[in-house]
Amino acid sequence: MTFRKLEERSLRLADGLARLGIGPGDKVAVWLPNLFAPVEIGFALARLGAISVAINLGFRAHEVGDILHRSGARALVYASSIEGTDFSSILANVDPEHTSALEVLVTCGDGEPQTEGPGKVPYEELLDSETIAEDLSSPDSPCNAFTSSGTTSVPKLVLHSQRGIASHARAVADAFSYKEPDCVVLGTLPFCGVFGFNSAMGTLAAGRPYVLMPVFDAEEAVRLIETHDVTHLN
């Protein structure tokens, strides 16, 4: 995907989300592996002044329900299944009381969600737009919420502003030497964690290619390193 294509898809996605009623301050939970979708969603939500709430791929029903409940997410974007994990089945076992705020389920990939209640929308349907959503972004708008490891019984939700995300991405680009003209970064760490997310944002800030791995596999990583002349790996 080119930078231009990423921008175009993010703008269309922002309009699709706006048509679902997502706007400034709304929380959208994102439960996805390292695909193009979570990157596109991040920029789309920022344009709307909305907040992306990252859900760890290793979470199961109780933990997913806890994050959805405490964040008050109005929408959830997730992959039905990947690499043997059936996310739809996990979601079906979430306590209904913890999904009371959910109004929309957006699914990426094949398969239909098995839960009842919220509206169900295919991800590609949100991209089917010819208009551009109004730019409601601002540097001080809350942008991303990540779960901390913490020392308590439940993860804390740590909120970051658009200014913080952008500033940190540029700092990462400088500190990790991502601006080198031959730099190619292999993304092995999941976007649902800050290390993986910052590696991706830092690479984009440097204007360099980022190679995505939905799920880490050592042999596949070696193949990608050789194929794409990867220079940086976390």
By DSSP (H or I, 4+ residues per run), the number of helices equals: 8
> In what range is the share of β-strand residues?
15-25%
What's the helix-strand series? HEHEHEEEHEEHEEHEHEHE
Q: Which geometry do the CA atoms define?
A: globular
**Content-based structural category:** alpha/beta
Question: How does this structure look, described?
Answer:
- This protein has 234 residues and is of the alpha/beta class.
- The chain is built from eight helices and twelve strands.
- The strands form three sheets. Strands 7-6-3-1-2-8-9 form a seven-stranded mixed sheet, sandwiched between helices. Strands 11-10-12 form a three-stranded parallel sheet, with helices on both faces. Strands 4-5 form a two-stranded antiparallel sheet.
- Strand 1 (27-31), helix 2 (36-48) and strand 2 form a beta-alpha-beta unit.
- It is globular and about 50 Å long.
- Mean pLDDT is 91; it is low at 112-117.
